């Protein structure tokens, strides 16, 4: 869900990694922090351009895979483009990627397309969203998100450094929390 509130969304003690007006990850642990498998679970959402994406109230969202996903987007950003996207509007890019990867309208697609999926199937918090990310500018990423709950489409251009900084800090925090809660193992 797209949410344009500018104040904290929950009375829980949340932590914001990055700048909400540019790119950030907001996360909160329940008072009785728990693990799902080997990953810490909690509440999370992503902020892009001052808009909160995801359902922060969804319980027990596994945090590690989202941190890994965001880190991978930053690390593989040079592969987030394909010549077939050249000249398309953001809506056209979204449709081409959606048709190739999800709707079945296209049988074959370049392997680069698989890396361009953003947040989709990463956590229950993002179940109402379908997103893609491409690097259509030298030092920036374009995020394109469809929100099923409001039938709305949004797109943002974010400096690559903003994503990388937020993802790195979020990932490091999760690892530290997991180690602390496991008793330092």
User: Quick one: how many beta strands?
Assistant: 10
Mean pLDDT: 89
Main sheet record: 7 strands, antiparallel
Helix content: 25-40%
Give the number of domains.
1
Proportion of residues in extended strands: 25-35%
The general outline is globular
> What structural category do the secondary elements indicate?
alpha+beta
Intertermini distance: 37 Å
Give the low-pLDDT segments.
4-11
Rg over C-alpha atoms, rounded to the nearest angstrom: 16 Å
Number of helices: 4
Order of helices and strands: EEEEEEEHHHEEEH
Could you please describe the fold and organization of this structure?
The chain has helices spanning 64-75, 90-103, 112-115, 160-181, and strands at 2-3, 14-19, 23-28, 34-36, 39-48, 51-53, 61-62, 129-137, 140-147, 152-159. It has 185 residues and is α+β, with helices and mostly antiparallel strands. It has one domain (2-181). Strands 1, 2, 3, 4, 5, 6 and 7 form a seven-stranded antiparallel sheet that branches. The longest helix is centred in the C-terminal third of the chain and has 22 residues, at 160-181.
């Amino acid at each position: 869900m797209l949410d344009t509130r500018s104040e904290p969304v929950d009375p829980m003690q949340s932590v914001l990694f990055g700048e909400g007006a540019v790119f950030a990850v907001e996360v909160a642990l329940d008072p009785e922090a728990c693990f799902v498998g080997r990953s810490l679970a909690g509440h999370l959402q992503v902020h892009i351009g001052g808009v909160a994406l995801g359902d922060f109230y969804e319980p027990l969202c596994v945090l590690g895979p989202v941190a890994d996903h965001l880190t991978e987007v930053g690390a593989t950003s040079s592969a987030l483009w394909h010549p077939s996207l050249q000249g398309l509007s953001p809506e056209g890019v979204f449709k081409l990627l959606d048709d190739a990867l999800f709707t079945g309208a296209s049988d074959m697609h370049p392997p680069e397309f698989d890396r361009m999926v953003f947040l989709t199937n990463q956590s229950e918090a993002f179940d109402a969203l379908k997103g893609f990310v491409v690097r259509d500018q030298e030092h920036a990423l374009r995020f394109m998100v469809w929100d099923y709950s409001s039938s709305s489409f949004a797109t943002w251009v974010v400096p690559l450094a903003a994503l990388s900084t937020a993802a790195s800090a979020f990932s490091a925090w999760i690892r530290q929390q997991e180690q602390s809660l496991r008793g330092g193992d």
